[in-house]
Design goal:
Strand content: 5-15%
Number of strands: 5
CATH topology of the largest domain: Rossmann fold
Number of domains: 2
CATH superfamily of the largest domain: HUPs
Largest sheet: 3 strands, parallel
Helix content: 40-55%
CATH class of the largest domain: Alpha Beta
Number of helices: 13
Bound molecules: adenosine-5'-triphosphate, magnesium ion
Length: about 350
């Protein structure tokens, strides 16, 4: 039996994920999305997707790197505490329903709307993609709608930079349900699945820190921009990176000390009262002992990630790789059950059901 109405499910669903554009995850991922994933793992039926096809949008000439990054990121997931026994790990390239839904959804999104997507625009600018990016780059925004909707989730835990994508995804789901499932255009989003829409309209759940700044203090912390503290960085590297953060007023960026990344990191990783006291010190205009604050922050971040580093170290080497391959293989089987169910429902709604597909 299909479960179009999510209220009939034992647990509501989550879909979220990461792109393997780097060998591991950073503190921005942790406060933006991973913390929520960890917290909600029992309450929700979770699908965590590794967007390895989308990594080709910027790294097409480096397939070996994408493969290594895929393994690295799954190791980070395990090290952080995402649990493949409770949740499903989804390898995008092995879920054919996602590719099919991408094509179908591409008909429901105006081209100009994709090109105006602020997240894409920022990425083109900050990643220096200029005029050279492939057709597949803007296409990934449509693909992400399919990544999400293939699992018909209620919730998508993401950082603030992804909100425009989730909005687009909600638009696609609304339009699909209205066009192909007879859902009236006055029906509120949260009622769609109840009245026969194939897709529940998913909501973004932004993390404790919506956008963690990078070490440069200007861009968001990002795998691709060389401004990140990674969860596997050793203690010395973490401290060195923090020590390099500028805390002087900067005429080029117009940043004043109160806006610098260091202060945001204090908010994120020190006890609240201590972070407030440090902010007050900077606001007072007096000389502040940056060095002491940086040391305190380094210690707090290292204490947070030390258990993750230890678990990550245990996954080093071929045995760890083998464990990841096993986890991915199990995930592929589980994910395809859910995604194929969605595809069948969507194709039926669109009048595309003619006969069973047998290959081979
Ligand atoms: P890339 O530079 O390749 O785009 P990324 O660092 O932006 O990599 P993604 O894989 O694109 O990482 O994002 C994975 C998830 O982490 C998304 O939900 C995103 O919103 C969240 N995220 C990424 N960076 C941050 C950040 N600095 N602060 C908060 N959340 C973040
Ligand atoms: Mg990104």
């Amino acid at each position: 039996m299909t479960t179009a109405d999510p209220s009939l499910r034992a647990r509501p669903r989550i879909l979220t994920g990461d792109t393997p554009t780097h060998t591991g995850l950073h503190l921005g991922h942790y406060v933006g999305s991973l913390e929520n994933r960890l917290r909600l793992q029992d309450e929700y039926d979770c699908y965590f997707l590794i967007a390895n096809v989308h990594a080709f949008t910027t790294l097409a000439e480096k397939p070996a790197e994408i493969r290594a990054n895929t393994i690295g990121i799954v190791k980070d997931w395990l090290a952080v505490g995402l649990d493949p026994d409770r949740s499903t790990f989804v390898l995008q390239s092995e879920i054919p329903a996602i590719a099919e839904l991408t094509f179908l959804f591409a008909m429901l999104i105006p081209f100009n709307k994709v090109m105006r997507n602020p997240t894409l625009k920022t990425e083109i600018e900050t990643k220096g993609l200029g005029e050279t990016y492939p057709f597949g780059f803007p296409m990934y925004a449509v693909g992400q709608c399919a990544d999400i909707l293939a699992f018909r989730p209620e919730l998508v835990p993401v950082g603030e930079d992804q909100e425009a994508h989730i909005e687009m995804c909600r638009d696609v789901a609304l339009k699909f349900n209205q066009l192909y499932c007879g859902v009236g255009n006055r029906v509120p989003a949260e009622e769609h699945a109840k009245v026969g829409g194939v897709f529940p309209i998913p909501k973004a759940k932004v993390g404790r820190i919506a956008r963690l700044a990078g070490l440069d203090g200007v861009n968001k912390m990002s795998k691709s921009l060389g401004n990140a503290i990674f969860l596997y960085d050793d203690a010395k590297t973490v401290q060195k990176k923090i020590n390099k953060i500028t805390v002087l007023p900067d005429p080029a960026t117009k940043l004043v000390p109160q806006d610098h990344a260091l202060l945001q990191y204090c908010d994120a990783f020190l006890p609240r009262e201590r972070a407030e006291a440090i902010r007050a010190e900077y606001a007072s205009g007096k000389d502040v002992m940056h060095g002491h604050i940086k040391a305190e922050l380094g210690e707090a971040i290292n204490a947070l990630i030390e258990p993750m580093r230890q678990r990550r170290a245990k996954l080093d080497g071929p045995e760890g790789d083998q464990r990841v391959i096993e986890v991915i293989s199990t995930g592929i089987r589980k994910a395809n059950v859910a995604a194929e169910e969605t595809l069948a429902m969507a194709k039926r709604a669109m009048g595309l059901h003619f006969g069973e597909r047998r290959i081979g």
